[in-house]
Amino acid sequence: MERSGAFTAVPGWGMVAVGATALPAAWLASHYSFELRWLEIWICEAVLAVSLAIVAIQSKAVRRGLPWTSGPGRRVALSFLPPVVAAALLTIPLVRAGLGSMLPGMWMLLYGVGFITGGTFSVPVVPVMGVCFMTMGAAALFLSTLGNWAMAAGFGGLHILFGIWIARRYGG
After folding, report:
1. Residue 102 sits in which domain range?
2. CB burial class (10 A; 0-12, 13-18, 19+) of residue 30?
3. Number of domains within the chain
4. Is residue 127 part of a domain?
5. Is residue 125 a part of any domain in this protein?
6. H-helix or E-strand containing 136?
7. SS3 for 29-85, per residue?
8. What is the chain's pLDDT, residue by residue, as a tens digit (172 residues)?
């Protein structure tokens, strides 16, 4: 039964918190033009966001009596992780090549892929969120001047919007 289930411990309010932390990060990073300080700000934000997400997922899973590290939870994580690792690895050569302006689009595109693949084992709105991230990422790739605005709209706005949707529809 555990194998066939969907991962329902997606933390809506946790996503809102993750989105809320991305907004000041985007503002702070906007003072730097895809240089090392810009990258440091976004790496710190990613560490904070992942930490918040893990705490929120664990908290919701415990409240619902769900095992978040086995069955559907593990499948979500194992499907979500490869695109995120690919984004992290691609960051290095893009920065070295002076193509930092491509990072927001690439990050959101692969983050969206992670939500689509991981979302196949979760509630139906999660892959929709992934498509929205991919759309925002594609726009950021072709309009690289959007940079921090795209990061604020994607990692901030989309997390907040979908977090509220998930919290209201699927509880907390």
Report:
1. 12-170
2. middle
3. 1
4. yes
5. yes
6. helix 125-142
7. HCCCCCCHHHHHHHHHHHHHHHHHHHHHHHHHHHHHCCCCCCCHHHHHHHHHHHHHH
8. 344 456 666 788 999 999 999 999 999 999 988 888 999 999 999 999 999 988 888 887 778 777 666 677 778 778 889 999 999 999 999 999 999 999 999 999 999 999 999 887 778 888 999 999 999 999 999 987 788 899 999 999 999 999 999 999 987 7
Q: Reduce the DSSP state of residue 160 to 3 states and report it.
A: helix
How far is Cα 159 from Cα 153, in angstroms, rounded to an integer? 9
Instruction: Tell me if 1 is assigned to some domain.
Output: no
* Global confidence as pTM: 0.87
Tokens of 35: 């240089």
CA–CA gap between residue 51 and residue 18 (Å, rounded): 9
Phi-psi region of 35 (alpha: psi -120 to 50; beta: other; left: phi over 0): beta
In a domain, 19, yes or no: yes
